[in-house]
Amino acid sequence: MPSNQLPVAEAPAEARKVHAALTRSSTGKEDLRELEAGLDSLQSDSIRKVRIDWSRILLPVAALAVLIILWQLYVSLGFKRRDVVPGPLDVIGQVGILWGEGKLQEAVWTSLQRGVVGFLISVVIATPVGLVLAQVAPLRRAFGPLISGLQVLPSVAWVPAAILWFGITDATVYFVVFMGAIPSIINGLISGVDQIPPQYRSVGKVLGASRLQLALQIILPAALPGYLGGLKQGWAFSWRSLMAAEIIAVGGTIGFGLGSMLDQGRVLSDMTIVMSAILLILAVGILIELLVFAPVEKRLLRRRGLLAGSTR
Amino acid sequence: MPVVLEHLGKRFGAGAPVLDDVNATIGQGEFVALLGASGCGKSTLLNIMAGLEAPTSGALEVPSDGAAFMFQDAALFPWLTARENIELALKLRGVGKSDRRVRAGELLDLVHLGGAGDKRPHELSGGMRQRVSLARSLAQDRQLLLMDEPFAALDAITRDLLHDELERIWKETGRTIVFVTHNVREAVRLGQRVLLLSSRPGRVVREWHVSEEHRTDAGLAGQLTGEITTRLREEIRRHAK
Predict the structure, then answer these.
(1) Averaged over B72-90, what is the pLDDT?
(2) Do A25 and B88 count as a contact with CB atoms less than 8 A apart?
(3) Could A207 and B225 be called an inter-chain contact, meaning their C-beta atoms sit closer than 8 Å?
(4) A133 CA to chain B: closest CA distance, Å?
(5) Least confident of B13-17, B54-58, B102-106, B179-183
(6) Which of A34, A68, A124, A242 has its CA 20 to 30 A from that of A166?
(7) What is the pLDDT of residues A218-272, one digit of tens each?
(8) Which distant-in-sequence residues (6+ apart) come within 8 Å of A285 by Cβ?
(9) How many CB atoms are closer than 10 A to CB A292?
(10) Measured distance CA(B234)–CA(B241) in Å, rounded
(11) In this structure, which long-range contacts are made by residues A38-46, counting pairs with CB atoms below 8 Å and at least 24 apart in sequence?
């Protein structure tokens, strides 16, 4: 056992300085602790203060204001009839009327609820499937092309089939949402797993992780940035598919969603309702991104030190 | 004897053998430096000892509980703090939750990083990351510790300090260490024994004992470094034709 404590300080200081790489270079435990502490503080960045960056809020608001002014300007020039191209004020008025009738709240709530529930169920289904596909090579080779293909197939294509199978019911809407979201989430997770440095697996093996532990404790967290990208896309696809389903499948036991509102505007030839519905669909999309995905993503990237130098 | 290598050979596919007839015995608590030029199969040999790869011929005897491993880059998980990285190693070993916290704290203290436990890998300097990585490999609590050029990417000042640090920890913990390096000075500085591996195929061609006098007498250490360097260069020159 190498437990002999040698009086290290005996070596002449001069020689120790010159040949630091060849012999002991510190004079003992306390000296070493002090040297390391000094080096650590020299080599670490000081903590930067986080401040509210007003340009993040003011620039998008300014961009929005410019767009609305341009819109109003175009309408006031009078190239088109007002009932074909309504101005921002007309649309705001219509939104006010819809709010007063309670239709707006009903439509947003119905759609949002369906979108979120459908998306969450998709996540629960897609995550284990994606993890298994990413980890088991024969399965991936067999089903990989199919999953990629499904991602390209517009999920609206499923609407006629769903109506024939489930009738005009909520099941139709959910089915279309699943077919939109699940392939995206699976693909995101697989590409996240593909980008994991191979060394993480070696470390996991050396640390004695079982196959399941490797998947849950190392592969899944390591793949999180890619997985989150898949979730974002999955949400976008759920929301789009939902709108498409609501526009096409109207009536029956299906409630009144934003897509239904859009279709109603078309039936009534009321362009202000159509524009209101489009803007509401857009607004919900932007709000979900700003309030849910952006903070989660930012936190994830910051904790891993991946945010420095980005334009986010 | 925790590690015995007998006529060990390794080839990938139908290519030339990477390792051929490697023989070595490493004693309990010994610090062995495995030295060789690039492409001599040092890392492959270490991977075989760690059980990450299988040899194609020969036999090896390693402790039944396996080995701890330290990589060239720290290979810390970026989504965990320094402490959580160490705790994960303990968790995968089956250590209970409350014990994990205490043990991780002790290990951080051992590598003089008691105050940096809550930092994430990207907030640490290269030397600090390697110390966390060392603490993590100690958390595995295996008698045998395999190290694959762990200090190669560090600056010279940090490396000198970590040599002292590793020597101290080796003495405190009584581990058996196999340390792979292509740096002759590093091998002489750390190893009790230096094994020189030839290149293509890798084979142990020569070994030197490094005594305690070499640790403190820079002249002696310099002499030995020169001798080993000369022999290493002979080995490299063979490949000039």
Answers:
(1) 88
(2) no
(3) no
(4) 23
(5) B13-17
(6) A124
(7) 998 999 988 999 999 999 999 999 998 888 887 767 778 898 899 989 999 888 9
(8) A236, A239
(9) 14
(10) 13
(11) A39/B125, A39/B127, A39/B157, A39/B158, A39/B161, A40/B113, A40/B116, A40/B125, A40/B127, A40/B128, A43/B125, A43/B126, A43/B127, A43/B128, A43/B158, A44/B123, A44/B124, A44/B125, A44/B128, A45/B123
Q: What is the mean pLDDT of residues B211-218?
A: 79
Per-residue pLDDT tens for B104-130?
Answer: 888 888 888 888 888 888 888 888 888
Instruction: Return the H-helix or E-strand segment holding A163.
Output: helix A158-166
Other Cβ atoms within 10 Å of B5 Cβ, number:
22
Nearest CA in chain B to A23: B215
Interface contact A304-B29, CB threshold 8 A: no
Is B217 in contact with A18 (Cβ distance < 8 A)?
no
Residue-level pLDDT at A10: 44
- Phi, psi torsion values for B147, nearest 5 degrees: -130, 125
Per-position b or e across B204-220, b if 16+ CB within 10 A of its CB: bbbebebeeebbbbbeb
Query: What are the DSSP calls for A227-269, one per residue?
Result: HHHHHHHHHHHHHHHHHHHHHHS-STT----HHHHHHHHHHTT
* pLDDT, tens digit (0-9, with 9 covering 90-100), for B19-51: 888 888 888 888 999 888 876 788 888 888 888
Measured between CA atoms, the residue of chain B closest to residue A200 is: B75
- This model of the complex carries an ipTM of 0.80
Across the interface, which of A32, A40, A207 has its CB nearest the CB of B92? A207
Q: Do the chains contact at A22 and B29, CB–CB below 8 Å?
A: no
pLDDT over 80 at B239, yes or no: no
**Band of the pLDDT at A11, cuts 50, 70, 90?**
very low
Q: What's the number of CA atoms in the CB half-sphere (13 Å) around residue A118?
A: 30
Fill in the amino acid letter for B214: H
For residue A129, what pLDDT is reported?
A: 92
Task: Compute chain A's Rg from CA coordinates.
Answer: 29
Q: pLDDT of A33-86, one tens digit each? A: 878 888 887 777 665 666 777 887 888 889 999 999 999 898 888 887 877 888
Separation in Å, CA of B19 to nearest CA in chain A: 21
Chain-chain contact of B88 with A22 (C-beta, under 8 angstroms): no
CB B24 within 8 A of CB B170: no
Q: How far, in Å, CA of B187 to CA of B181, rounded?
A: 7
pTM over 0.90: no
Q: Which residues of A224-233 are buried (b: 16+ CB within 10 A; e: fewer)?
A: bbbbbbbbbb
